[in-house]
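A reminder from the course coordinator: this example appears on the midterm review sheet, so study it carefully.

Given structure:
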């Protein structure tokens, strides 16, 4: 077949063979009738002429698209395989020393003779060993604490989200096919920081002098630490400090404390608020109207949406008022007074008006007297003022 190839391509090639090289082949020399040990030709070449007594083996380079990969005594080179098959790519092109090497494309492996796609592991199973051009994917069932929710030839099982690590509670426990879902922080409850009654109680119209100091002294005999008190003083305005102090105190007080009757009264007051708001079917639209009718800064839309999802009436209204107070560092009693009645949905008009009256009315005033007497050791008589009526 080499006759086809022009002689100019076959530039004769003398390879200097290192002395230690013992790669030889036997050749019977017809002139001397002896068997000679000829040098082999290196990879990329072939034997153009065997050696004689007088001269060494003549090697010539393989022509284009032919190769020899080893030291050899061949009289020609091997033809490189033509092109790669379907779904294959050339991993290595043809050279004088190597054949063209084909391999299945990414995502396929050689399955007997053809390239087949790598297997995908279904949900509940993950990839243990990724497929290669020569081997299929190996899937494994997700073990306890792991999941896979996808069909994939690359995704391993993943560890369930650790809610506790995120400081959250579990909403749905994970399975082999689903991740654990944690409760959203805000969905844990419709908890509010300070109730309407607590706020009302501690918004003294004319606080006794050194009121906060008195409160602190009164509470310092409890387990409330000065560090906690300092934190409250740093965080909240003087007007807000009393009810946060009280809240802190309440969270740490014991059952037989002298404030126990007051705490009971506050609970009673909160029940009153719930009753006032009553069974109430607020549409989303009405909730938006309520929020629009409150003065000053508006609560963020997303916070309203979250509250709508997590709170039910009557807590919904209380929570929304709470959000408004925090947003405005405001006074809910003032907020209720300044409600834009025209914007307020009808279903809420009477209720909100009553709520405002309740929180600044006689019942609250009695409570106020009680606490001021308790805290001030019966020395200061509170002055009933307009704001409370
Ligand atoms: C799979 O789970 C992750 C993590 O919980 C989630 O983000 C993703 O949307 C889920 N995908 C499907 C297809 O269910
Ligand atoms: C609230 O409204 C919904 C639909 O508007 C209705 O199905 C439901 O019975 C109502 N609940 C009350 C307590 O009125
Ligand atoms: C305040 O007076 C009431 C009765 O009027 C009494 O029960 C209470 O113990 C007194 N409080 C203090 C701190 O003296």
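Designed residues:
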């Amino acid at each position: 077949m080499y006759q086809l190839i022009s002689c100019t391509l076959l530039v004769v090639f003398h390879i200097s063979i290192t002395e230690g090289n013992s790669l030889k082949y036997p050749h019977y020399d017809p002139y001397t009738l002896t068997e000679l040990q000829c040098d082999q030709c290196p990879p990329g070449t072939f034997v153009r002429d065997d050696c004689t007594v007088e001269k060494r083996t003549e090697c010539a380079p393989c022509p284009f698209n032919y190769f020899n990969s080893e030291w050899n005594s061949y009289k020609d080179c091997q033809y490189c395989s033509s092109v790669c098959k379907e779904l294959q790519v050339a991993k290595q092109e043809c050279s004088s020393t190597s054949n063209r090497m084909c391999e299945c494309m990414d995502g396929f492996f050689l399955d007997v003779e053809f390239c087949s796609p790598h297997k995908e592991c279904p949900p509940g199973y993950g990839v243990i060993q990724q497929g290669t051009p020569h081997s299929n994917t190996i899937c494994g069932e997700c073990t306890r604490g792991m999941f896979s929710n996808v069909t994939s030839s690359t995704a391993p099982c993943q560890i369930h989200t650790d809610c506790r690590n995120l400081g959250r509670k579990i909403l749905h426990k994970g399975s082999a096919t689903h991740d654990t879902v944690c409760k959203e922080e805000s969905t844990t409850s419709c908890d509010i920081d300070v109730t309407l009654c607590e706020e009302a109680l501690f918004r003294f119209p004319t606080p006794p002098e050194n009121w906060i100091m008195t409160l602190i002294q009164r509470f310092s005999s409890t387990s409330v630490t000065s560090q906690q008190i300092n934190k409250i003083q740093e965080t909240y305005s003087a007007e807000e400090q009393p009810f946060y102090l009280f809240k802190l105190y309440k969270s740490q007080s014991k059952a037989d404390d002298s404030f126990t009757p007051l705490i009971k009264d506050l609970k009673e007051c909160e029940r009153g608020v719930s009753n006032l708001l009553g069974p109430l079917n607020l549409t989303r639209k009405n909730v938006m109207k309520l929020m629009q009718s409150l003065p000053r800064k508006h609560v963020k839309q997303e916070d309203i949406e979250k509250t709508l999802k997590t709170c039910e009436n009557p807590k919904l209204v209380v929570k929304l008022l709470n959000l408004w107070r925090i947003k405005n560092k405001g006074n809910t009693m003032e907020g209720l007074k300044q409600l834009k009645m025209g914007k307020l949905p009808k279903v809420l008009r009477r209720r909100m008006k009553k709520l405002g009256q309740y929180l600044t009315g006689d019942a609250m005033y009695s409570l106020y007297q009680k606490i001021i007497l308790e805290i001030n050791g019966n020395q200061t008589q509170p002055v009933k003022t307009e704001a409370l009526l």
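The longest strand covers residues 24-29. The pocket of 2-acetamido-2-deoxy-beta-D-glucopyranose (ligand 2) is lined by residues 279, 281 (CB under 6 Å).
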